[in-house]
Amino acid sequence: MKLPETIRAAFVIARRDFTATVLSKTFLLFLLGPLFPIGLGFIFGGIGAQVERNAAPATIAVISSPADFALLETARDRFAPLGTERPFVRLQRVDPEADVPKQRQELLTSEEAPVLGVLEGGLAAPHFTGAVTADGRTVQQVNLFVDEARRLKAEPHVASSPINVTLTRTSAGSVAFARNLTARAGQTVLFVLTILLAGMLLSQLIEEKSNKVIEVLAAAVPVDSIFLGKLFAMLAMSLVGITVWTSAGAAAIAIYAKGGLGALPPPAVGWPAFLFFILLYFSMSYLLIGATFLGIGAQASTVREVQTLSMPVTMSQVILFGFASLGVGKPESSEAIGAAIFPLSSPFAMVARAAEQEALWPHLLAFAWQVIWVALILKFAAAVFRRSVLKSGPAWRWPWQKRKAA
Amino acid sequence: MGERAIAAETRDLVKDFDDKRAVDGVSLTIPEGSISGILGPNGAGKTTCLRMMLGIIDPTSGSRTLLGHDRPLDVAHEVGYLPEERGLYPSMPAAEAIAFMGALRGLPIAEGRRRAIDLLRERGNEDWAKRPIRTLSKGMAQTVQLLGTIIHRPRLIVLDEPFAGLDALNQEKLEQLIRDQAAAGVTVIFSTHVIAHAERLCERVAIIAEGRSAFEGGVDEARGRLRPIVHLRTRAEDGPWRTALPIAAKKVGGEWRFELPEGGPEPLLKALIDGGAGIETLSIERPGLHDAFIAIAGEAAARAMGHAPAEQEAA
User: Fold this and answer.
1) Are residues A376 and A334 in the same domain?
2) What is the pLDDT at residue A359?
3) I need a labelling partner for A101 at 20 to 30 A (CA). Which of A44, A75, A387, B88 fits?
4) Is residue A3 part of a domain?
5) Which residues of B touch A215 (CB under 8 A)?
């Protein structure tokens, strides 16, 4: 059977599978499924951020003279820019009373103005009392404030900025950092999409095997066409899903991230090419891993067998992802090149490369390499299916096994 | 067979499944435009032969050609196949299922949909068109699959146990459909374990038993392997006429039964009359395919197909 006929037959199979899937009621759930966690993430993330913003930093009561307190406040203000995620503890001055231990006890138990701890003894002999851990965040902060306040007291001129600052738009370090981040993000997106979608191919031939349609198909078209059609039908269905999810994701980024997509670190090949490569390498990853899964799943005859296979194949995807991520940040390393050459990890490695290096020719090479491997895996899977499931051709035997039937 | 072209041919087909030899050197020749039956009990290897002929599976050894091609899938567009285990997508509407089967064999889907509606309408079943297969009865679904087998107007139709699961009325309709297809020049091959269907429809039969080809040729040729059977009733119980009967003659229910002797009916009649048999009735019955099958494949094969030998039936 010539190639165009194989493709024509594959199209007939793909059209049936695609319409049967996309026009089913469950496809709506498939589309909405990934949006639930994203939506919940945004909702609860927003609530968490709001709670974080609304939560006032803990207060430390400082029993000290106004002069010492002023130095402590100045020290705190100098460190304040470092506490953007979780603000530093707030300091509140209290005039010393005659009975300081009693005053300390009252401050620690007061419900009107609750404090986390009490600092007393001024800068000369500071002593902290509070419900905190000895080497915890609060004690470390108070240590820093006292240390800096003492330094300010001894050398008042250090209160001004010690350096002059000139700002540049980028530096080699910032670009490398941003590209590394984008490479990892691209790989993760690819991995998540593949692990979510390629697993479905395991069970693709169960329907045909259970309702005996496989006999009708195998009598009319080559097994290669059946595999090819099923693979591309599921790819097309996945791309429909990705279009919906990407649109929702882009809308969320535009709403939540300042500056929209432009706020994300730019990849080496630029955003338009990088998005194209993500789509291309997702397709290739899906075809490569999907063809393998289709071949493995085709050997199963029941849903139970497919379910049993799901865990090991998911683990194998995690291993591939781990292998590909070894080369991120060092595209010329043997790990990165090895991951780009090994067919099943090649798309992951190449999407990272697109984020890190500007050259486009390696992508042409990788694409051709991956296409060859998709064809080889499909051909092999179809041959194994014909041999082991349809029982076609001479039975395969180990050299030491005797031919008994004859 | 004369000058008729060959629609399908197998030569010494062998198929091993693991350590079991399912088909052992089967050779078949199917002339174009003929209706040919493959007879044999369950497990004889009929389906495996058909699957090899169609290229669904490759033989362990031997060769086959289908419409002149040794790679059967190359002519899939010109072949229709109804498998023994019927298979349709349960959620597919009937007309779509018919069109899909045509599309698999190269018929454009739009044309397939149009023809599917026409075929259903011709049979008064147009109301099935939009019904999903899962809502149809087994017989209805089988009809849908049969229409899917001929939707693309093939030159060769292969039907594996097509009568199984059909009621008498639908069996009659299917027989008519097979005759109509053959009348239109289509070659029809079907396997069956019901000899009556083959006898009514077939020009040629192949008898397969235990994976081997026991007979292949015309139905008349199969019948010709047996001598005609004489049924004789006489007034005389005994007498010189008894010497005219062959040694193997048996009396079943007051009637003598024996194969017509080599010399033909005239010498037999003369000997009976001269010997004073007092002939009440004498009839010469041409053997049926059923008898030929038993003679060729053996009684065990006949029993496996649910056909008891004639004498036992009579007893």
Assistant:
1) yes
2) 92
3) A75
4) no
5) 56, 83, 85, 87
Q: Give the chain B residue nearest A390 (alpha carbons).
A: B57
Contacts of A97 (CB under 8 A, 6+ apart): A103
Q: Which residues of A touch B16 (CB under 8 A)?
A: 394-395, 403, 405-406
Range of the domain at A125: 58-159
Domain co-membership, B250 together with B119: no
What pLDDT score does A280 carry? 94
Q: Do B73 and A1 touch (CB under 8 A)?
A: yes
Between residues B104 and A386, the one the model is more confident about? B104
Q: Where are the beta strands (DSSP E) in chain B?
A: 6-17, 20-31, 35-39, 61-66, 79-82, 156-160, 187-192, 204-209, 212-218, 229-234, 250-252, 255-259, 279-285
* Angle in degrees, 0-180, between the axes of helices A3-22 and A223-256, rounded to the nearest 10: 50
Q: Residue A403 has what pLDDT?
A: 54
More confident residue, B303 or B15: B15
pLDDT at res. A36: 77
In a shared domain, residues B58 and B163:
yes
- Coil, helix or strand at residue A240: helix
Number of structural domains (chain A) is 2
Same domain for B24 and B168? yes
CB-based contact A390 B21, cutoff 8 Å: no
Does residue A369 have a pLDDT over 70? yes
Determine the residue of chain A that is closest to B90 in CA distance. Answer: A211
Q: Chain A residues with CB inside 8 Å of B23's CB?
A: none
Indicate whether B33 belongs to any domain: yes
Q: Crossing angle for the helix pair B138-150 and B109-122, nearest 10 degrees?
A: 130
Range of the domain at B263: 227-285
Q: What is the pLDDT of residues B80-110, one digit of tens each?
A: 999 988 889 999 999 999 999 999 999 999 9
Which burial class, exposed, middle or buried, applies to A350 when counting CB atoms under 10 A from its CB (0-12, 13-18, 19+)? Answer: buried
A405 pLDDT band, cuts 50/70/90, is very low
Interface of A with B (CB under 8 A): 1, 8-9, 12-13, 15-16, 20, 24, 207-208, 211-222, 386, 390-395, 403-406
Task: Give the range with max mean pLDDT: A272-276, A392-396, B222-226, B290-294.
Answer: A272-276
Q: Which residue is closest to B145 within chain A, CA to CA?
A: A216
Spatial neighbors of A107 by CB under 8 A, at least 6 apart, are: A61, A63, A94, A115, A118
Amino acid A194: pLDDT: 87
Q: How many domains does chain B have?
A: 2
**CA–CA gap between residue A396 and residue A389 (Å, rounded):** 12
Q: Tell me if A205 sits within 8 A of A297, measured CB to CB.
A: yes
For residue B307, being part of any structural domain is answered with no
Report CB contact under 8 Å: A213, B89: yes
Report pLDDT digits (tens) over A97-108: 888 889 999 998
A158 against B141, higher pLDDT: B141
Contact A9 B104 (CB under 8 A): yes
Say yes or no: A270 and A355 in one domain.
yes
User: Is the same domain home to A153 and A185?
Assistant: no
Judged against a pLDDT cut of 60, whether residue B309 lies above it is answered with: no
Would you state the pLDDT for residue A9? 94
